[in-house]
Amino acid sequence: MDEAKALTIAGSDSSAGAGVQADLKTFSALGVYGSTVLTCVTAQNTLGVYLVEPLEPRLVEMQYKAVLEDPGFDAVKTGLLPSKPIVELVVRELKKLDKPIVVDPVYIAGTGFKLSSEEAYETLVRGLIPIATVVTPNVNEASKITGIRVETVEDAEEAARRISSLGVELVVVKGGHLKGAPVDVILHRGRMLKLRGTRVEGSFHGAGCCFSAAIAAMLAKGLKPLEAVKEAKRFIETAIAHHHKVGSGIKPVNPMARLFMEAEKWSIVENVRQAIRLLEAEPKVSRLIPEVASNLVMALSYARSPSEVVGIPGRIVKVSGGVKAVMEPVYGASRHVARTVLTAMRFDPEVRAGMNIKMDERILETCIRLGFKVSGYDRRLEPPEVKAKEGLSTSWGAEQAIKAAGGTVPDVIYHRGDWGKEPMITVLGRDAIDVVHKVLKIVEALQREPFVE
Q: Which residues contact 234 (CB under 8 A, 6 or more apart)?
């Protein structure tokens, strides 16, 4: 069976956050071979767009015909089409196709720079949208196309109807800029649907390009338009949530995030396994195991929930002659320690692992003598709304301790307990092995002085 292939007809982004660069990353991440037809070269970065230079239509045409001849494509998407002659060329050529066409009607950059001429955009609306399978305007583009101001879901529904009347099979009015919760409005062959999303705080570069490219990739793989849009929605939410943290301006989305996370998963499990072996090889670690037992966790670099943190089901318990992990490490096996680590990662993404150990004053003093950075919080000050919801206590406490340390994540976070709550120390580090090395240092230091169980 031939490999699925997709084509992007769009501009080049020198910062690689959008345009054909983002499209190719998206195609690759979704297992689709990508080809390109460049329409223009832009000078831009995360701070803004400085120049858009359209290519000669003849060069655009020759690129397209070359790719059409070989290797070919199963679906095509269009992005930035900066001039009327280029739009007319693209319409003329794509009209000859019997393949899915995705139109991302790019008009203005997120920084406000006008990317396409007025006459080019009018030609796109009159000529390209009517032959599209899917068109993916954001609220600003939907407003430009329809002439109505799109601010609410109801406005988006009306815009979708008007765009659909141009002849396109499926319209997605993207709701990232709508007031309130982000809701994508879909009109597919007369049926109106809403896809609700999760808002990620901030502004992001390349989301529209990656979303439309993901739809094209799914269509190339044989999905129907509505299913392709739903899959692309899931894909882009991950790319936004795990955006790149580069540049001084608008952050680029990360279309490779899912691949990185999959590749990283097994290496983290192995790191925790190795760390457990180190713990089990030192019998005196049992002195540090609290009444509720211990857990050792490590998070994916992109982790946002406990399901993306490796832990030990059943925890680490005392046994005759030492300690033992009850089961093999898996994802989602910790709540409390995992939430402490997830909170620490918000302040320092390099701190991705932790282990809870017994809290008493002698152990705490030993941590300080070893030169560990130590910070604590008072569980008695926990707000009622935090106490009322399971799982919030450790996140709240970790944040208090980190803020008390000046915003720097300490090596050790502790609390002295509360009514019905055991006092606890959590040792933090870059990975599980780093955490265990710190725990073993504590054990070694305690061996040099009397210790009372």
A: none
